[in-house]
Amino acid sequence: MFKKISERKIYSRLIMAVLITMLLAGSVLASGHVQSDNPKYVFFLIGDGMASSQATLAEYYNQFENLEEPNHSYEEHGESFIDMTTEEHSDRLMMHRLDFAGSTRTAGSFTLVPGSAQTATSLATGIKTDRNTISLDVNDNPVKSVLMAAKEKGMATGLVSTARITHATPAAFASNVPDRGMENEIAAQYLENKIDYLAGGGARHFLASSNENSKRKDDRNLFEEFANEGYEVFESSADTAAFRDYMPMAGDRVLYTPTMSHVSYEIDRVNKLVPSIAEMTQKGIDLLSQDDDGFFMMVEGGRIDHAAHDNDVAATIHDTLAFDDAVKTAYKFYLEHPNETLIIVAGDHETGGLGLNSCEGMEYDYFMDLGPIRDIKVSIEEGFEYTGDRAQVYTDLKEDFGIEKLNDREKEMLENAMDLQDAEGSGANVMDFGGYWPQASWISPVQSTIAHITSKRSEIGWTSSAHTGQIIPIRSHGAGAARYNDSMDNTDVANITAELLDVELN
């Protein structure tokens, strides 16, 4: 009896399996949608310095804005990247609406709190390395990135960044140097490696040393060298109109560097003389998608990290929202090629120790107020400068930061910062007067103080002006995206992507 029942169960299960298979096959035939695990088009979008706190704060702010104003369509130059107004939860970030969610650990080879070169190398090549090393192992041997492996396979390749295009994150995908500061060598290696699309800041590393803006030590004019290799070269913001009007053709290669150093913070990009990260991503799609073998494009929201180093709450939010616009741009392409497109959205590490509630002393409260952020019109670093004119500082506070009156503690902090800077110069640090917080080395005590006044007014806290060792979220969507739905090391991301592309790394 037992044997007959077992055989009957087995037989029933076989029939059920066949029926399910037939139903699924019918559904696929009806929809015409067959999702492959081997993507033809790969978007690897990295928010530098972006962890869950940065992305969550940006989403809350976006929702807050939409309470009283129509939903943003992110229109620019007469075009809308994606109209999100008709979609469910349209005020959520696009990255938070992708299908799969995982997390990555970020420690370096010998450090728990990583540098950008370390984390970028891990995400790009699948190995751990030293703090400032770009795509070399701990023995200084060059290692291959997933982008370069994709290129060897015949895929088109692209790098986009709002930082200098020679900065650590893009560099890890297309160069190998012992120190991230070797940006002149990184720029030259992009030419040697024939990266098809390069868009971001950093023109100073392509100019010959005879140019007063150059950071090179030699007479190489890389703009001329790229042009001689057949690249369409747009070397400054004066070429932005031509870049926008440019219609790529199959086989073209492009270099676009609208700024000498980093692209402006999104909150300062008011005149739109430089394209947004979403616009640069779209131009990359227009170019790279013409390759029959597909493409791999790395897109970095590089200035999220810089804003968080400054503890600048408004700049952090706006650059995160701009980065999410690039995710929307990739998603729009996915909708056109759902069977072949993979979108990966990750941070490389967290910056600033951002806390979505600020407690000072023995305060105890559950509260945030995003209203004051709406009144901030400029970044702390680029939009404001203390020149010694104290009256002007108070005018700037009102006009640019929406602060008409300081309380006693805020005024004391600001006056102390101005006293220190007047005595010691812009190189002084708020820690020098018993300081209230860490200060990024490239901003002044007055700038740092204003950053913390504006953050505190929204009950936003910061524990650091440097990186932290937090675990970082990763989101994915499309072909093979389920593979990233796990708790991983950051090295796993490169290795999984290489497996999906059927390429070898190291």
Automatic annotation (TrEMBL):
<feature type="binding site">
    <location>
        <position position="48"/>
    </location>
    <ligand>
        <name>Mg(2+)</name>
    </ligand>
</feature>
<feature type="binding site">
    <location>
        <position position="348"/>
    </location>
    <ligand>
        <name>Zn(2+) 2</name>
    </ligand>
</feature>
<dbReference type="InterPro" id="IPR017850">
    <property type="entry name" value="Alkaline_phosphatase_core_sf"/>
</dbReference>
<feature type="binding site">
    <location>
        <position position="349"/>
    </location>
    <ligand>
        <name>Zn(2+) 1</name>
    </ligand>
</feature>
<feature type="binding site">
    <location>
        <position position="167"/>
    </location>
    <ligand>
        <name>Mg(2+)</name>
    </ligand>
</feature>
<comment type="similarity">
    <text>Belongs to the alkaline phosphatase family.</text>
</comment>
<feature type="binding site">
    <location>
        <position position="169"/>
    </location>
    <ligand>
        <name>Mg(2+)</name>
    </ligand>
</feature>
<dbReference type="InterPro" id="IPR042085">
    <property type="entry name" value="Ap_crown"/>
</dbReference>
<feature type="binding site">
    <location>
        <position position="467"/>
    </location>
    <ligand>
        <name>Zn(2+) 2</name>
    </ligand>
</feature>
<feature type="active site" description="Phosphoserine intermediate">
    <location>
        <position position="116"/>
    </location>
</feature>
<feature type="binding site">
    <location>
        <position position="309"/>
    </location>
    <ligand>
        <name>Zn(2+) 2</name>
    </ligand>
</feature>
<keyword id="KW-0597">Phosphoprotein</keyword>
<keyword id="KW-0862">Zinc</keyword>
<keyword id="KW-0378">Hydrolase</keyword>
<feature type="binding site">
    <location>
        <position position="300"/>
    </location>
    <ligand>
        <name>Mg(2+)</name>
    </ligand>
</feature>
<keyword id="KW-0460">Magnesium</keyword>
<protein>
    <submittedName>
        <fullName>Alkaline phosphatase</fullName>
        <ecNumber>3.1.3.1</ecNumber>
    </submittedName>
</protein>
<dbReference type="GO" id="GO:0046872">
    <property type="term" value="F:metal ion binding"/>
</dbReference>
<feature type="binding site">
    <location>
        <position position="48"/>
    </location>
    <ligand>
        <name>Zn(2+) 2</name>
    </ligand>
</feature>
<keyword id="KW-0479">Metal-binding</keyword>
<feature type="binding site">
    <location>
        <position position="305"/>
    </location>
    <ligand>
        <name>Zn(2+) 2</name>
    </ligand>
</feature>
<dbReference type="InterPro" id="IPR001952">
    <property type="entry name" value="Alkaline_phosphatase"/>
</dbReference>
<dbReference type="GO" id="GO:0004035">
    <property type="term" value="F:alkaline phosphatase activity"/>
</dbReference>
<dbReference type="Pfam" id="PF00245">
    <property type="entry name" value="Alk_phosphatase"/>
</dbReference>
